[in-house]
């Protein structure tokens, strides 16, 4: 193989060659063009800008000459004409103000004789055209006969920054202020369309005009490199940097105007010509590269195609495909000749190969077609030369892996190297004697490790180069050998199983009067008899049957049915001990013999245990029945007790409820007492007054007495009215309370009304103590619920506080508070600042009959009733938090609309218990 | 091949990062560069430009080149606002200007929104004194100058009756100046016999205004106006033959005044904000550089603008970057000035001594001030 660092395909190689040629050529040509042309263009630009500057300066001077020449006649005229005439001609000079913004005639002393402003400058009548130019720089530099141009200066006359021109003739000087637009137009005209940038600045670097548009009249450009050079008189077309770009700048000073003209043209890639040249060279380079690539690819394809065909054909020959191709001849003569020679050579080789193949085929077919005889050829060193199909099949080694290997190195089917060396010894013997060896039985192994037994013969046949080939022919006899040994093994196995079986088994011959042939070890143990004592004997002879009838029954059954299934019989051991056995037997016909196989199981112990269990079961059943009876009696008793308990509880609840109603009645009665008492007192006063009045009427009635009587009647009526109304109100609210309490009416109501009623009703019991109830319930909370039960809940909670909270306190406080927690729910807290509730008691506080004041009047039902009402009727929650020593808080949360009762449930009827 | 390309691109990246020039530092200038107040504007711009050019020649501010943006306000509030907006849009670090008090309001409003400090060389109106805003200035306020003028003319020139014209196109300055002057002058015992307002423009009737002043029989004529207007008023007064003492204000005391006024302004008194006869090396070298560059002598506006610009650069070198520039100007002073150090108080105001001058033969001559 030829070593190459990297090889290319023929087509790529030819393409690359063509492309490289094109690129290098174009690169060289382009480079030379650029190297030659760019300095040339630069030199041209340098000369051009300098020339342009001079040209433009001259052109502008020429253009502005016209302005100067207009001023001169006025100056001449000022010497002799009247001031009116001079003014008129000045105004004519101004005209539309296109050239001058202001023109004025100045005397030698510097005072303005007359002047005119352009209309655009706003020439109003009041505008004075006078002034003193004695110290004006332009005026002072004006000289006879020659017009002088100014830098940009601030003019007092026009009041603006301007450029002026002064022309002097005799004693008079005419000054004109140039219209900026005119100057701008002139510069544009002069600069033409050359593409150069032109810039005019005055001596101080102030911007005068330009065609760039980048600058304004506000700029002083003295610091720009191009202006700096121009002002220093060094602007001769050199390359300078201008706003980050390279430019060629030429400049000149106009002696006439006193201004500097600067013309710039971009240098480097900014220059149009350079850019075009570079673009052309790059385009040419790119274009030729593209064309080269296209052409090269096509050309390379044309050239490489016939060669590729030839190469393909050679490849096919090498692989043994000698088929002729129908390809047409190519255009390259040498290749065509080469192709023909190649085909001839291929044909000759093909013919020879076919010949050899035929003779070989005959031998191989005969060797290969045998399937049962494994044939191998070896040379004298033990190398495998041939390995037929049967060898592959028998030994598992394929011909491919076997052929070429040496048996002493790779033992193949030999079990180890030692056996292989032995085989090699046989080969040598056969070689020497010329006699065949075998057939001999050999132990060999398969590739998968399985053992083989073969019958092998070895003989020699002549081979190439006069050497003998040793032929081994083997026949596989493994299967036969294995079948023989398997039979022996299975007999041994059966015997072992028979003896090892834990069941007592015996075999007897049905054809030979049931004489015993065999018994196993278990049988010997079970019956305490020896094999040698029983073999060949009948059952009766050995005396095993305790009852002869059993024996007869067994014989009849087995002869009739062919089997016996679990027949019970009492058999006798060798020592005469009886055994209750279960006998199972089967007749098996083996090779004309009818053998009876009997299995005898000792069931003496099993039977005894079964009997015991049965007795125990019966006793247990008896005992259970007795216990059940006792339990149901107890249960009935319990049910009765529970029923009593429940009834008692109901009664107690009712009592509690009535007690609270009684408290309410007492409270209301107490409240009623005051207004009615008042009414009684006042009415008795009225009665007295009436009596006294009647007496007076009988005697004498003074006016004052009448008046006094009427007044007191009025007062009394008022008091009566007020007190009776109060009483009526109280009765009304009592009625409502009574109705609510007794019937659990549902209706919309205000929470504060219920609270007020409850506090009112509890008034008497509260007043006995010095404790206070602080009603902090928010106004306007409207509920659709059960006012009676809610009132009762509040009353029970307040009562609970009064009874329990203030045992160690003289004056405690109870707070009623509300807050809306979320939509539809309201929280009512009943809190006290009393002694609190221990944690242990908190858990049980809502349980029925739980009280800490047992025997002191507490029923233990108040909080329980409250809890049930809240949960079951009002549909809310009630819990308590407490800090012992600081007070307790009952938290009541109820929906603003109570849930609809499903039915008159137990919970509902429970407190009402009617 | 791939790794070679990677190395090349990395190398180029580092070269580019290393070689990338720093962003130039942009400074804006706003002043009246056209119209009647252009003398003040041009002088200020020249001082500003010279300072920047010198700094750039010395390598810039901490290595950053300074780029200038010059805008003309045309003495028109709307144009001034546009100019300020353009500078804000260009992201300048600072605005030097304006040159007249009337322009402060629109510019400051725009600059404040963008948080850019405005440092004026020549604005003196006392209306802005003592305000903690983004406005800073080099000059003292009108109180110093107007008061000085009143005292001098009362005591030294024996003036008792003054007729005044004042330019309402720069009302922020002129009215403020006049108020201070009036207060001071009247307290001394004088009286202001006429106060005539006018708006500077093409159709200003100078002769009529001067006649109106003379009608009040004054001892002196006071022009609170720009150089162009002052020159025209003086010329009219002399034409009519008025012999009264002429007084003008520091606003008009530009180098152009001489040229504009001609002989008519000889004998005019005014307060000057710098000393033309200074022989200090710093002033002389500045004067030489200025004259070489602009072919004209520097005026008070040039010096003030130069000082303001240099002070800003010095503040930047002392750490006043970005929005911290104002604080640096207020706190890191004093800064070197041509004739005196620049030092701002906490409101961004400064003090600058003044001299009284008279114009003789087209020159400003310092007259001894004995008013104290």
Descriptors for this entry?
heterodimer, A: 914 residues, alpha+beta, flat, disordered C terminus, B: 372 residues, alpha/beta, five-stranded parallel β-sheet, four-stranded parallel β-sheet, 12 helices, 12 strands
Q: Summarize the biggest pleated sheet of chain A.
A: 5 strands, antiparallel
Query: Rounded to an integer, what's the Rg of chain A over CA atoms?
Result: 72 Å
What would the principal axes of the Cα set say about the shape of chain A?
flat
* Span of the ends, CA to CA of chain A: 121 Å
Secondary-structure map with pairings?
The complex is a heterodimer of chains A (914) and B (372).
Chain A lengths: L9 H69 L4 H12 L5 E7 L5 E6 L19 H5 L6 E8 L4 E10 L2 E7 L1 H12 L5 E5 L5 E4 L14 H7 L4 E7 L2 E9 L6 E7 L5 H47 L14 H37 L3 E6 L5 E4 L1 H7 L3 H4 L14 H17 L3 E9 L5 E12 L5 E9 L1 H23 L3 E6 L5 E5 L1 H7 L3 H4 L4 H4 L5 H14 L1 E10 L5 E13 L2 E10 L1 H95 L4 H41 L3 E4 H11 L1 H6 L3 E5 L5 E4 L1 H19 L7 E10 L2 E8 L6 H6 L17 H12 L3 E7 L3 E9 L10 H7 L2
Parallel strand pairs in A: 22-24
Antiparallel strand pairs in A: 1-2, 1-5, 3-4, 4-5, 6-7, 6-10, 8-9, 9-10, 11-12, 11-15, 13-14, 14-15, 16-17, 16-20, 18-19, 19-20, 21-23, 24-25, 25-27, 26-27
Chain B lengths: L1 H18 L5 E7 L6 H20 L8 E7 L4 H13 L4 E3 L7 H11 L2 E4 L14 E3 L4 H14 L5 E7 L3 H18 L2 E8 L7 H10 L4 E5 L2 H14 L4 E4 L7 H6 L7 E4 L8 H14 L5 H18 L7 H7 L23 E6 L2 E5 L5
Parallel strand pairs in B: 1-2, 1-3, 3-4, 4-5, 6-7, 6-8, 8-9
Antiparallel strand pairs in B: 10-11, 11-12
What does this structure look like?
With 914 residues, chain A is of the alpha+beta class. In chain A, 51% of the residues lie in helices and 22% in strands. Chain A contains 23 helices and 27 strands. Chain B is 44% helix and 17% strand. Chain B contains twelve helices and twelve strands. In chain B, the strands form three sheets. A five-stranded parallel beta sheet of chain B has the order 2-1-3-4-5, sandwiched between helices. A four-stranded parallel beta sheet of chain B has the order 7-6-8-9, sandwiched between helices. Chain B is globular. The N and C termini of chain B lie far apart (87 Å). Chains A and B meet through strand 3 of A and helix 2, strand 2, helix 7, helix 8 and helix 9 of B.
């Amino acid at each position: 193989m030829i070593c190459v660092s990297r090889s290319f395909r023929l087509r790529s190689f030819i393409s690359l060659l063509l492309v490289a040629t094109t690129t290098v050529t174009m690169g060289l040509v382009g480079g030379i063009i650029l190297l030659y042309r760019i300095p040339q263009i630069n030199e041209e630009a340098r000369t051009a800008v300098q020339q342009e500057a001079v040209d433009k300066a001259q052109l502008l001077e020429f253009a502005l000459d016209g302005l100067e020449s207009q001023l001169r006649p006025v100056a001449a005229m000022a010497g002799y004409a009247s001031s009116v005439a001079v003014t008129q001609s000045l105004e004519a000079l101004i005209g539309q103000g296109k050239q001058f913004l202001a023109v004025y005639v100045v005397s030698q002393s510097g005072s303005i004789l007359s002047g005119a402003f352009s209309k655009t400058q706003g020439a109003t009548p009041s505008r004075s055209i006078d002034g003193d130019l004695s110290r004006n720089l332009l005026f002072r530099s004006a000289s006879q006969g020659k017009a002088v141009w100014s830098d940009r200066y601030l003019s007092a006359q026009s009041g603006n920054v301007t450029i002026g021109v002064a022309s002097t003739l005799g004693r008079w000087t005419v000054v004109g202020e140039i219209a900026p637009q005119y100057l701008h137009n002139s510069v544009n005209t002069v600069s033409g369309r050359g593409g150069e940038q032109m810039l005019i600045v005055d001596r101080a670097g102030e911007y005068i005009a330009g065609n760039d548009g980048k600058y304004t009249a506000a700029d002083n450009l003295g610091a720009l490199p191009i202006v700096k050079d121009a002002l220093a008189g060094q602007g001769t077309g050199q390359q300078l940097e201008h706003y980050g770009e390279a430019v060629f700048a030429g400049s000149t000073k106009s002696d006439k105007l006193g201004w500097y003209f600067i013309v710039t043209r971009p240098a480097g890639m900014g220059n149009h010509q350079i850019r075009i040249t570079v673009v052309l060279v790059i385009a040419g380079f790119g274009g030729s590269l593209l064309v080269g690539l296209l052409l090269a690819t096509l050309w390379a394809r044309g050239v490489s195609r016939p060669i590729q065909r030839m190469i393909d054909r050679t490849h096919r020959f090498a692989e043994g495909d000698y088929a002729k191709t129908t390809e047409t001849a190519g255009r390259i003569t040498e290749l065509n000749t080469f192709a023909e020679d190649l085909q001839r050579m291929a044909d000759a080789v093909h013919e020879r190969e076919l010949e050899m193949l035929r003779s070989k085929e005959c031998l191989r077919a005969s060797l290969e077609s045998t399937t049962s005889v494994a044939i191998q050829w070896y040379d004298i060193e033990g190398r495998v030369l041939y390995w037929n199909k049967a060898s592959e099949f028998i030994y598992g080694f394929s011909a491919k892996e076997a052929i070429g290997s040496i048996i002493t190195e790779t033992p193949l089917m030999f079990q180890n190297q030692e056996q292989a060396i032995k085989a090699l010894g046989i080969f040598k013997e056969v070689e020497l004697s010329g006699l065949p060896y075998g057939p001999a039985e050999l132990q060999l192994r398969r590739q998968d490790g399985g053992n083989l037994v073969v019958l092998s013969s070895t003989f020699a046949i002549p081979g190439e180069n006069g050497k003998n080939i040793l032929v081994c022919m083997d026949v596989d006899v493994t299967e036969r050998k294995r079948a023989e040994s398997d039979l022996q093994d299975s007999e041994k196995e059966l015997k072992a199983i028979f003896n090892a079986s834990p069941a007592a088994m015996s075999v007897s011959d049905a054809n030979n009067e049931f004489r015993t042939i065999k018994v196993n070890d278990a049988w010997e143990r079970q019956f305490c008899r020896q094999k040698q004592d029983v073999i060949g004997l009948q059952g009766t002879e050995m005396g095993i049957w305790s009852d002869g009838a059993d024996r007869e029954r067994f014989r009849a059954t087995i002869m009739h049915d062919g089997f016996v299934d679990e027949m019970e019989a009492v058999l006798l051991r060798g020592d005469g001990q009886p055994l209750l056995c279960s006998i199972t037997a089967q007749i098996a016909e083996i090779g004309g013999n009818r053998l009876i196989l009997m299995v005898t199981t000792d069931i003496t112990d099993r039977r005894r245990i079964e009997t015991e269990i049965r007795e125990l079961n019966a006793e247990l059943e008896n005992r259970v029945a007795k216990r059940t009876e006792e339990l149901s009696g107890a249960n009935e008793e319990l049910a009765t007790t529970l029923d009593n308990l429940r009834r008692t509880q109901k009664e107690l609840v009712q009592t509690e409820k009535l007690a609270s109603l009684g408290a309410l009645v007492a409270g209301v009665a107490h409240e009623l007492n005051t207004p009615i008492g008042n009414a009684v007192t006042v009415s008795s006063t009225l009665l007295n007054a009436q009596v006294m009045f009647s007496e007076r009427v009988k005697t004498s009635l003074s006016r004052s007495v009448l008046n006094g009587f009427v007044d007191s009647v009025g007062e009394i009526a008022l008091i009566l009215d007020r007190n009776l109304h109060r009483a009526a109100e109280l009765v009304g609210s009592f009625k409502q309370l009574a109705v609510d309490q007794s019937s659990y009416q549902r209706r919309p109501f205000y929470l504060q009304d219920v609270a007020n009623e409850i506090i009112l009703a509890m008034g008497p019991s509260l007043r006995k103590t010095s404790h206070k109830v602080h009603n902090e319930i928010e106004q306007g909370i409207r509920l659709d619920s059960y006012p009676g039960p809610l009132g009762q809940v509040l009353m029970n909670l307040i009562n609970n506080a009064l009874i329990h909270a203030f045992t160690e306190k003289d004056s405690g406080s109870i707070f009623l508070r509300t807050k809306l927690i979320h939509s539809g729910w309201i929280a009512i807290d009943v809190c006290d600042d009393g002694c609190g509730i221990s944690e242990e008691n908190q858990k049980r506080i809502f349980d029925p009959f739980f009280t800490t004041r047992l025997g002191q009047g507490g029923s233990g039902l108040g909080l329980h009733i409250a809890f049930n009402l809240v949960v079951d009727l009002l549909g809310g929650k009630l819990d308590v938090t407490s800090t012992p020593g600081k007070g307790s808080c009952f938290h009541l949360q109820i929906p603003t609309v109570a849930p609809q009762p499903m039915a008159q449930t137990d919970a509902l009827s429970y407190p009402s218990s009617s | 091949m791939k790794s070679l390309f990677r190395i090349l691109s990395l190398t180029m990246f580092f070269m580019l990062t290393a070689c990338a020039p720093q962003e130039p530092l942009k400074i804006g200038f706003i002043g009246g560069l056209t119209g009647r107040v252009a003398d003040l504007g041009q002088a200020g711009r020249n001082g500003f430009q010279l300072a920047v050019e010198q700094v750039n020649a010395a390598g810039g501010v901490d290595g950053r080149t300074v780029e200038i943006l010059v805008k003309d306000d045309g003495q028109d509030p709307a144009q001034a606002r546009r100019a300020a907006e353009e500078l804000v849009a260009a992201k300048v670090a600072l605005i030097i200007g304006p040159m007249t008090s009337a322009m402060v309001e629109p510019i400051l409003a725009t600059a404040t929104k963008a948080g850019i400090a405005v440092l004026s060389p020549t604005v003196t109106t006392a209306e802005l004194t003592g305000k903690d805003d983004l406005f800073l200035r080099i000059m003292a306020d009108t109180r110093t100058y107007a008061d000085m003028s009143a005292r001098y003319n009362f005591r030294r020139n024996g003036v008792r009756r003054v007729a005044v014209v004042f330019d309402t196109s720069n009302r922020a300055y002129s009215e403020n100046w006049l108020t201070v002057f009036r207060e001071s002058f009247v307290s001394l015992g004088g009286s202001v016999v006429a106060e005539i307002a006018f708006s500077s423009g093409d159709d200003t009737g100078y002769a009529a205004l001067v006649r109106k002043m003379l009608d009040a029989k004054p001892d002196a004529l006071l022009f609170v106006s720009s150089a162009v207007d002052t020159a025209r008023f003086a010329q009219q007064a002399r034409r009519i033959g008025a012999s009264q003492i002429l007084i003008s204000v520091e606003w008009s005391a530009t180098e152009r005044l001489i040229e504009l006024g001609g002989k008519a302004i000889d004998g005019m008194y005014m307060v000057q904000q710098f000393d033309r006869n200074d022989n200090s090396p710093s002033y002389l070298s500045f004067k030489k550089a200025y004259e070489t560059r602009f072919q004209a002598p520097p005026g008070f506006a040039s010096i003030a603008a130069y000082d303001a610009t240099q002070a800003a650069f010095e503040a930047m070198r002392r750490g006043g970057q970005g929005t911290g520039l104002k604080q640096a100007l207020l706190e890191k002073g004093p800064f070197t000035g041509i004739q005196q150090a620049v030092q701002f108080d906490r409101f961004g105001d400064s003090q600058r001594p003044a001299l009284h001058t008279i114009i003789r033969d087209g020159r400003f001559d310092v007259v001894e001030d004995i008013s104290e």
